[in-house]
Amino acid sequence: MDETRAAFLRRLLDAPSPSGFETAGQRVWVDYVEGFADEVRTDAYGNAVAAYEGGETEVAFTGHADELGFVVTAITEDGFLRVRPLGGVDRSVTEGTQIEVHTGDGAVNGVVGQTAVHLREAGEDDPDDVTEQHVDIGAEDEGHARELVEVGDPATLAAGVHDLAGTRIAGRGLDNRVGSWVAAEALRRAAERDADCTVYAVNTVQEELGTRGASMVAFDLDPDVALVADVTHAADNPAYPNSHASEVELGGGPTVTRGGSSHPEVVRALREVGHTEDIDVQVEAMSTTTGTDADRFFRERGGIPTAAVGIPNRYMHTPAEVVDTEDVEDTADLLAAFAVREVDRESFAVDV
Length: 352
Prior knowledge:
Layout: H1 3-14, H2 23-33, E1 39-42, E2 48-52, E3 58-64, E4 69-75, E5 81-86, E6 98-103, E7 106-112, E8 135-136, H3 142-148, E9 154-157, E10 162-163, E11 168-171, H4 174-192, E12 198-204, H5 212-221, E13 225-233, E14 255-258, H6 264-276, E15 282-285, H7 294-297, E16 306-313, E17 321-324, H8 325-341
Parallel strand pairs: 3-12, 3-13, 13-16, 14-15
Antiparallel strand pairs: 1-2, 2-12, 4-5, 4-9, 6-7, 6-9, 7-8, 10-11, 11-17, 14-16
Helix pairs in contact: 1-2, 1-4, 4-8, 6-8
């Protein structure tokens, strides 16, 4: 990944964007795509759409802007905060971690309290639910805490981005900043190749709360085909359970999902494009839904042909997610090549 693209990804990862509070991340994304898109717009809830106007057929590349987080629900008499999770926060990784509360006056540092191991009784190692945990911002009492924070302020875990060996990185919010990066970069690369179709890059809000933003965008755009870029579980590490058999591995290239909401003709076309462009494409099976915005796009407007394109990710929904940036780049290349090679198709409808 060259310096410009890497800097864009780092800016996305540094911008706090918990579900429902995505403005900081969307500003980074919009600033980037304005450099090459023909049009950039946002809607009432902050979904962002960039367009390259190249022809009649319309292709949408989508990622989602939001990350897991918290919202302050109460401030105790002793000056501690109680919070509620935004999205699928894992209670086993929150206790004992540092946190940032994002207020109107800037970030307020805190920690999620945890009883020291010396003081816990045998059998007390199961973490409390997130709503039973507390955040310590160092306040002396309730009045002091309310000077710093108010109920309704969002928060994120305070974990930065770190380079690992080779082309791999670790950090919070790779789900789904890498998908946001892919949507923007695939648009830029399709435009560079003079794709003879109209391409939309989309960055949705509130995916972690139930694919809400995707429902708004899918109805508004009504594209001929949608490719949804999101992370997927890499199975090539000791933490991955044997009960969830999968062949997906980090560094093996993007995945395409067969079954569920992924349209069979779109999947077939993606695999052909990967073969033609010499891009390694992994296949993963899905019997029901993908848990991504693809589940929303495919059932809007009477059915938008859609495919979920996965970026392998280890340790999802933790502050230490791991991806390979070569997989991220290959995903952008795959989507851009799809726009170039599949533009002449009359329809993606299944032949019955």
